[in-house]
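Question: does this match?
>
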Amino acid sequence: MEIPYKELQQNTLENLIEEFVSREGTDYGVQVYSMQDKVRHVMRQLEQGSAYIDYDAETSSCNIVKRT
């Protein structure tokens, strides 16, 4: 189920994005980015609609997914 990022409290959204970008295996290529840079990149993708927050009711977990 898609969760509109604007419906989340700012602190909750930031924590969700930080958890997402800190996961092992998140690939940003050869460029090295700070945590703050990564959070901004993901936030920009959410704002532009190229990514969305997906809630899985079965596992009670959220993930940020690129649109295809």
About this structure: The domain at 2-66 is CATH 1.10.10.610 (Arc Repressor Mutant, subunit A). The chain has a mean pLDDT of 90. Residues 19 and 25 are 12 Å apart (CA to CA). The first strand starts at residue 2 and ends at 3.
